[in-house]
Specification:
The complex is a heterodimer of chains A (about 190) and B (about 70). By secondary structure, chain A is an all-alpha fold. Chain A contains 9 helices and no strands. The chains are: A mainly alpha (about 190), B mainly alpha (about 70).
């Protein structure tokens, strides 16, 4: 092993848990997540020698993972293991959070979270965030992660999932409401 | 008059596309009188910012595949 290869191997060992955590949030399946990360590392390893800077290297590896995740999602869709929900969202989010006149339910009324920058630097926030993501129903969580963690546009999400853009907006609305609610309860209290 | 339920729909939608002038005004008026929704809009905005900040993540390059 050359010195560069040894360094790359050390980078990979350090990077791996973060890659797996990210892939799991998106794929919601431990085996699929491992597969995506494995393929990513194989691809990355072949070309790792061309990288000097470490952060540049990590960004590049996550970029590869993103495409491996999309491949896995397409495969899951073909195999029917993932049915992106259709027009009939069997979901009571809105009825649960709002009174019939459209006001917040008392127990669901949002409270103050503090300064955004401080919130994002709080480690507990991220622990609760991950727990809340896992608690989201699959169909809602996948659209949310495609949008907010993978950074796809809603137009691209339509292509990947076969749902309409309007439906995508509806799902994102519910995902944000549910995450917000879950964070409110799990993090502040 | 826009109620909280619909207001949260517009808060989410504005992260996806430009709202119409009518929608913008309706949301603004609602937010001016509803503290709970003012918290909510800040939290939606925060959730929208998280993608590149997640500890497991890093900024993802757009449209690039090197394999």
């Amino acid at each position: 092993m050359t010195l560069t290869a040894t360094l790359a191997a050390a980078h990979f060992t350090q990077l791996r848990p973060r890659l797996v955590a990210f892939a799991r949030l998106q794929l919601r399946d431990a085996t699929a997540a491992e597969d995506a990360v494995q393929e990513t590392l194989l691809t990355a390893f072949e070309k790792s020698a061309t990288f000097e800077g470490r952060s540049e290297f990590e960004t590049w590896v996550f970029g590869i993972l993103k495409y491996k995740i999309l491949d896995q999602l397409r495969q899951q869709r073909r195999q029917g293991t993932w049915q992106p929900l259709d027009q009939n969202l069997d979901d009571d989010t809105l009825d649960r959070l709002f009174q019939s006149d459209g006001h917040w339910q008392n127990a669901a009324r949002p409270s103050h979270w503090g300064e955004p920058e401080q919130v994002l630097e709080n480690q507990r926030f991220w622990q609760v965030f991950d727990a809340c993501m896992i608690a989201l129903p699959d169909s809602i969580a996948r659209v949310f992660t495609l949008r907010e963690l993978m950074g796809l546009s809603t137009a691209d999400i339509c292509k990947e999932t076969g749902i309409t853009e309007t439906n995508c907006w509806v799902i994102l609305h519910r995902a944000r409401l549910r995450l917000r609610e879950c964070l409110d309860h799990g993090w502040l209290n | 008059m826009l109620m909280c339920r619909e207001a949260t729909g517009l808060m989410s939608l504005k992260l996806e596309k430009a709202l119409s002038l009518r929608e913008k005004i309706a949301l603004k008026v609602h937010l001016s009188i509803c503290p709970a929704c003012r918290h909510c809009v800040r939290q939606f905005d925060l959730l929208h910012k998280i993608g590149n900040r997640h500890p497991a993540s890093l900024r993802m390059p757009e449209r690039e595949q090197d394999d």
